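USER:
Before I trust my own judgement here, I would like a peer's view. Write it directly below this note and I will take it from there.

ASSISTANT:
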Amino acid sequence: MTTSLGYGSGVALTGVVLYNLLGLALIPVAGAISDRVSRRPIYLTGALVVALSAFPYFWLLDSGSTALVWTAMALAVLGGAVCMSSLQATLFTEMFGVGVRYSGMSFAYQLSAMVAGFVPAIATSFLVASGGASWPVATLAVALGLVSAIATLFLPETRDLDVSELESRSVEAPA
């Protein structure tokens, strides 16, 4: 931010500290709401916030205003960290029965790391190819937010399931 956008060296650090404090306060709230409402709609909300706030996020970063940069960081924490990251462990755990939970989670994690691991390089190449314009990266963020939202719609609802019902969803395989 200091080199490419011309902000003072303390702007990013202060913003990161502020939005981490905001996330620290709001993550338990999102977890409590997901316990009452369900994880799927909260996660879906986060994915849609990511998709809908991508362009405004970069517009705010490009504004030259420290207050607007911090607002952009707050948008990022509300969408990504609070609504999505805070629920991932529980949401993903509920997708697999006890007998395959570790393998299922590990497979999903490794597959996503293989695919998403290239996103920073892709975003960087978009920035270079566009001469530093942020719209290609914002478009990528919109696409990823929409993919997450669509995938979330296909997740089974676990709100009213008893823990024993989750455990019985294990796959039996011959030894």
